[in-house]
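JOB MANIFEST
job_type = single_chain_structure
chain_count = 1
residues = 179
[input]
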Amino acid sequence: MRIITLLGWAGAAMAAPAHSAVTATGDVGFVIESSVEIAAGPDAVYALLLTPGRWWSDSHSYSGDSANMTVDARAGGCFCETIPAAGGASGSVEHGRVVYVAPGRQLRLSGALGPLQADAATGTLDLVLTPAGKGTKVRMTYVVGGYLRTPPARIAPLVDRVLDEQLQGLKRAAEAPAP
């Protein structure tokens, strides 16, 4: 993984306001929970979840461009990213594997995100959408476990802030005026 990506995770941790929480840490993992209310219906928010290039931060991608990210919304599908190479074969990275799909209601992925991929860790990222007034509440839970070279209590707040940044990006994209 590129050093810039690692620094991007750390920089976001210092700059992003906290809208979520690390709810548990232990010797072998951690749990992050976050939620946001979005002024859009569940089906529209779900459709947007499947197009991460519209809301995921470029600085938290391997290629530097979230437009290279895709989600194949079926069990066994991939939350993947193409890494273009100048004059050569492209690379790719699997951010997560889709393990549960309930259109308009829930999307669950299994995978170690970002710098966690370099360790013997895995995670479950669960996004649950529920109607809330005239919009949608999105509840995100990320449970990580395994062997982490960085103590879970130290890395969990960084991961929390980065994932909250993505959730806030989802909200901004969903609420942006149509072009």
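[summary]
The two ends are 35 Å apart (CA to CA).
Residues 114 and 168 are 18 Å apart (CA to CA).
exit_status = 0
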